[in-house]
Design a protein that fits this description.
The protein is an alpha/beta fold. It is about 50% helix and about 10% strand. The chain is globular and about 55 Å long. It starts with about 25 loop residues before the first helix and ends with a helix. The protein binds fe (ii) ion. The site of fe (ii) ion (FE2) has 6 residues, from helix 6 and helix 9.
Length: about 325
Amino acid sequence: MNGIPTERITGPLSAGMGDLTSERSRFIAEAQRQGLHYIHQPYELYSEANHDAWRCLYRGMEDRWQRHANRHFLQGIDRLRLNPNRVPRLEDVNKFLYPLTRFRAVAVSGYLPAFLFFNSLRQRQFPTTITIRDGGDAFAEWPDIFHDITGHVPMHTDPAFAEALVRFGDCAHTAVEMVADIRDEEEQVRRLTSIIRAMARFFWFTVETGLMREGKGLKVYGSALLSSRGEIDHALCSDDVQKHPVQLEWIINQGFLPNHYQPLLFITESFTHLYELVDELERWMRAGRLNNVAPGEPAITEADLKSFLRPVH
Ligand SMILES: [Fe+2]
């Protein structure tokens, strides 16, 4: 598993664990209580209501993907052979994904501190939520398996996109290097907060909400949009959304609120362009140009900072 341990919840497993509905899964609560980040997918815990939610979400997206999704995403969805009617097993997804780009989806218990998340990408492991939102709501406030598997993972089948993600993971190691020798602890935390914020904003305005030109129009490659039937329509059809060519200096200084429909989106030219932007992000990091980005969202937590200051590889 390339250095990332797969941990298992100790004690009786299925008994009394309920289903895998987001925010009320006892299995996940127990994993978090035990401090486990990487877990397995207890497939037997998915209830019929969980599978129904998956079916409803998937059916709600199919037409929209055809209309609005980037062609690399559509190819990816085909290649993964997801079942529209059943929550997927990660091992089945990986059977199709791994031979294409050596990426794998790995089950996690929820939010991963920033370094762990970015470092997983570097190791071609995508931290994947295994719970599913209640009742197939169009918009989920937090990632769930529908967001992670239908929004992110199809993009990981594309070699150029996959390389850009791995390169982004490299930047997390550069960030560790950049702050390691700062003796003044307060300054170290201040600078690191700014660098993590810049990285999170970059990720948000590209991987999560990115648009790309295709023919005469715009298509979506951002995962947050690709997994929300409400938001993908809003992104491409509402006059209230500003769309601009991506500019590094803008996106690293631009705050965002992940739990709302996005008012501002950026257009990337290609995945080669995305890779070049990641390279540039790293050059800017080395030159100190990420040390003072504009304050604001997203908030950087204690756990995020610790994960960089005492990184586990
Ligand atoms: Fe996401």
